[in-house]
Amino acid sequence: MARENVTQTQVRLPNELLEALRVSAEKNLRSLNAEIIYQLQAGIGLTSPHATPEQVREIVADVVKSELAKAGK
């Protein structure tokens, strides 16, 4: 994100929400700031949800299994 297109702001969040955002950021391999931006954009329809790292691993594992089955292994 270009700095000239960014406004810094302060927001008060309930502790439980902040902790949930931290957990989600860690799970999705994003910084807390990136997670908050992503969640806000997804919440108001500016972006579609991305696959989580766990979902990507499952998709890759399924593709590998399928390709191995095709190869007869």
From TrEMBL:
Domain of life (superkingdom): Bacteria
Name this protein carries in UniProt: Arc family DNA-binding protein
Coiled-coil region(s): none
Domain named Arc-like DNA binding: residues: 10-41
Record key words, sorted: DNA-binding
Any GO MF annotation of the entry: DNA binding
Source organism phylogeny: Bacteria, Pseudomonadati, Pseudomonadota, Gammaproteobacteria, Thiotrichales
Pfam families cross-referenced by the UniProt entry: Arc
